[in-house]
Design a protein that fits this description.
CATH architecture of one domain: Roll
Largest sheet: 5 strands, mixed
Order of helices and strands: HEHEHEEHHEEE
Structural class: alpha+beta
Oligomer: single chain
Radius of gyration: 19 Å
Length: 175
């Protein structure tokens, strides 16, 4: 009986410690094109991606956003200079869509501040879409001087009733 009580107390202490440490970190869920492709057409799911199934990174709140970019480079093999992040916005129907690209100013902020500014609905995590910017010659796709207000990212979901499958397409438009 003493063993059970002792084990129970140890579990409570561990949970308390994890909760205290959680205040120091930001959970960042990074969805990629591959996650969207995996999600669409395999299950009946209304949203573009199931955020519970995407890669999660745990970054200290005071660390700059560049820390996440470096970890993503290690995890996915995508060089930092080809990474471009979009903030997901929660819509009225409780689905998420990429809303806008992170600005250069936002990318120099600590991840904790970025999460608070960008995610008004769910403050325990930051949801991002990773766009990979590669041309055929492996140069960055977008000119450095171009502002994000000149670009629109469109997501199309196409349902094939004969095959009962859903496909998606991403289209980047420049105004």
């Amino acid at each position: 009986m003493d063993e059970i009580v002792k084990k129970d107390q140890e579990e409570k202490l561990q949970k308390g410690k994890e909760k205290a440490e959680a205040c120091l970190y930001t959970m960042i869920k990074v969805a990629r094109d591959e996650d969207l492709a995996e999600q669409i057409g395999k299950e009946i799911y209304f949203d573009l991606v199931d955020h519970d199934k995407v890669r999660t990174f745990c970054i200290e709140k005071q660390k700059p956003f560049t820390q996440l970019k470096e970890e993503v480079a290690k995890a996915f093999g995508i060089p930092v200079q080809f990474q471009r992040y979009w903030i997901w916005a929660k819509r009225q129907n409780h689905t998420y869509r990429p809303a806008r690209v992170l600005t250069a100013q936002e990318e120099i902020q600590p991840v904790g501040e970025l999460r608070e500014v960008s995610n008004k609905w769910n403050n325990d995590e930051l949801k991002l879409f990773l766009e990979v910017e590669l041309c055929l010659d492996l140069r960055p796709l977008h000119p450095a001087g171009k502002t994000t207000r000149e670009e629109i990212l469109l997501f199309f979901k196409l349902y094939d009733p004969l095959k009962e499958t859903i496909r998606y397409y991403i289209l980047l438009l420049n105004r």
